Amino acid sequence: MIETEAVQQAALPEWLADVAVDQEEDAAVLDRAAGHPDLIECRRTADLLVDLAQENPGEEAEGWALDAMLRVIQCAYAIADGDLVKANECGSAAKGERAAVTLDRLESEGTTADRLAGLDQETYELLQWYAAPWPMEWLFPPAKDTQGRVSQPRIVVLFTGPGGLTHGILRILRANVDVVGVDLDRGAVATSTAAGYRVIHADVTDLDPEHPCLQHVTGIALTPPCQAYNPSGLRKGHYAGAIELIEHTVLEAAAAAGFHPVVTPNGGDVAPRCENGYAPRLKMTWDEIREPLEQLEDARAGLMAEVVIWPLAMLARGGSVEWVAVEQSSALPARIEAALMDRLSEAGWHTTEAFTLDAIDYGSASHRKRRLMAAYRGERPFVDLTPTQPFPVTTFAAVVGWPTGRTYLTRGNRPVDPATGRAKGGSARSADLPSTCVTATAYGWTCAETGARITQEDIGRLVGFPADYPWRHVGRGRGVRNKAQQAADVVCPMVSAALFGRILGDRQWETKVRAYVEELYRPAAVERNGQALLRRLFAPRVPAQNTSRSPVA
After folding, report:
1. What share of the chain is helix, strand, coil (3-state, %, to 5)?
2. Which pTM value belongs to this model?
């Protein structure tokens, strides 16, 4: 027995023997769990952190090493007990620490995002795992110009949909920015991806807002679903109970991020334990912060809390996010808007603003009134988003190619009311005016005279997308309603260009939007103007007659 125990103890590394409570039992468990990938990962990370602590003696490094040692024992027992979920948690945590140490080493060696191709395969795959689902290059700081400004700012777009906001930034403004969107709808993700944009298919609430890839993000834009607030819906986001719950949640989110101001009685100094006037971070996970929102009758209303959760969490992680932009229904309750802006202001986004804009005022062929909010850590932007003069009016008929004098019906395939024998909702509207706000039932809009339906191409152009925009559907059937729903939920690209022209300081945003609108709705005129310009540039030159006298020799 003594010989067996000696053999088992000898098999343990010195650091592992130091943390084994019962060396014989622990050695036996480690032996049974040997070869399991999670235990291998835990031991590998522990070896790394122990070596690191020996090279850099100090309380912090030694604490990391001790935690890693204890995790090896914990993982081994989880495997022996058949608790593979716990074992996997240990393995993932260990792998994350190893990746963080590796990233820190690479940065200290001067490795940058443009040199990732030169990494060995094992390191490359480790960082790729660590960065997921975000781009791996986002683990590293972005390049800067000679004046120290970020050359290509990084922007996150949550609830990105089929790409309206991104289309305005990249295709209309042609801004030199790096944009990554997130959306849960597979069809919308497929559409945005097909359009050439980078999108992560995920539920926003399932992602970690403190992910290491987000610490170098310059701005975050959020366009949460608006159905809970729209007048055309059931307006469950307007219920007093819902408003109070959202207000409470965003207040808790600020506390969880460490940005809950502390006000002492009689205006005295803040308590010594408070840093910069904020109370210590509330020890709650983001899932725990969101949990009360499950009481809402319409869960979509609670997604407005993400407007505070994400930027505050990014800032708490040491991020450098400078601005926050939000798009929502024009009927968003004022109390919710105030709660969001107050929390952002308290956390350092001292400049806040809000606008109610209609897409028709930015050249769109359809009305779409939305509330736009923005918060900045610096000064208020100097670029005005109000057009200098009205945009040309584009009618419904002009978009779908109908002659003047027609009417379109918006009842579509709505259910018939037995009392009247007519479809519930909807109406008849003149096609000689801009379209009413496009809804998910637009695929059933028809011409009152001929019965002809408009196409998805028509729907897309009504809300500001080019005719060849690649609308996609994932699943059974043709996805006619899903594609129409995407267009109904989208941010108008022209409004996006105006907002981000202001945020990014692009004084030429209006000129770019006007050019885009002309190409979108009057391509024949654009083509004629282009051909005229070509003729002027390349027409044969006729030598001018010389009427002056030749100089006398």
Report:
1. 50, 10, 40
2. 0.86
